[in-house]
Amino acid sequence: MAKSYNKDTLSWLNTTFLIVTPILFIASTALWLSVDGFDINQLWLGVVFYCLTGLSITAGYHRLFAHRSYKANSLVKLFFLTFGAAAFQNSILKWGSDHRLHHNKVDTEADPYNINEGFFYAHMGWILLKDNDTVKEKYAKDFYRDPLVLWQHKYYLIISAVFGIIMPTVLGGVLFGSYLGGFALGAMGKVVVLHHSTFFINSLCHCLGSKPYTDTNTAKDSWFMALLTFGEGYHNFHHYFQNDYRNGIMWYHFDPTKWLINIFEKFGMAWDLKVVSSKKILNAKMNMKEIRLARKLSKQDARLEELLELKKKALASLSEWQDFRVLYLNNKAEFTRERLSSLKQKIRESKKVFQTHFHEWNQYLDSVQV
Ligand SMILES: [Zn+2]
Ligand SMILES: [Zn+2]
């Protein structure tokens, strides 16, 4: 049923906030420019706050708290909770429970930001409605056992005001001589732009892009969306492998959230990073291509059997290559030089075997395409 936005269904606090913040952003920017004049430093201050806050949502709220895709020490958690609050997207208790429900019931009526209700609803309409104003208790049980999460929930408004508004405003004044400039860009500009870039994950990331891993839901992979969302644009992968700490799995995928988690890991502040095996990922990708092909061919087509055999070979050789790599990486310090160099040779050879098998599978797939 189409959602209706009226005086009985609207959450007035959320609606007012989402309308007033862009107005304040434009008005305060105009006032700042006319009173104090443009200063590039204020823009950089806004960008710094935007990144700190945005990454706290993606690396903290999303991948650490909502998905538990890695573990982090209290300092990192505290950083994400304070700067995450600065995004004015609610406490993690509320945000995380909504998000888990989204994954669990994606594209259904129970999905809090169900894209089938239309682009506007998935983007921000759902926030305007009273219906979605509550914590989804079933999906928040572990949050209630985390004292830091409870602390943030209790003092959410104070924390968000301090880190989201007061801090950038004061820094704008103290460092660059204009409190107004700090308020316009570091506080308001950051909140408004970040709101919509986060909302895009629920709207555009379910509309734009490709579906390499599964087409059982609307989530899509898009490198362009990754640029706008600190790497969250690989949303098809994320919906299929939601516990992986990465969204962009290749080194050239733009995923600054993943890079930040890697940095924390280097300094011993994050650990237990969950990674889905290359074999499982490739298997999902190959399966998806086979499913698409099977839809075009008849079920009994013998060529599908042949394709399956080639896939098995490719996956087995991938496993072998990965096993040699793991053996090498885990024993770099212990093995003798000779053993390491023979292992390196095996890695090279098994990689070639895999590439040949994968190429055969791809060629066969192309030849069968109708
Ligand atoms: Zn989604
Ligand atoms: Zn997610």
TrEMBL record:
Entry keyword set: Fatty acid biosynthesis, Fatty acid metabolism, Iron, Lipid biosynthesis, Lipid metabolism, Membrane, Oxidoreductase, Transmembrane, Transmembrane helix
Keyword check for Disulfide bond: no
Membrane topology per record: Multi-pass membrane protein
Domain Fatty acid desaturase per the UniProt entry, residue ranges: 44-261
One Gene Ontology MF term: oxidoreductase activity, acting on paired donors, with oxidation of a pair of donors resulting in the reduction of molecular oxygen to two molecules of water
PANTHER family to which the protein is assigned, alphabetical: ACYL-COA DESATURASE (PTHR11351), DESATURASE 1, ISOFORM A-RELATED (PTHR11351:SF31)
UniProt-recorded name of the protein: Fatty acid desaturase domain-containing protein
Organism: Halobacteriovorax marinus
Biological classification of the source: Bacteria, Pseudomonadati, Bdellovibrionota, Bacteriovoracia, Bacteriovoracales
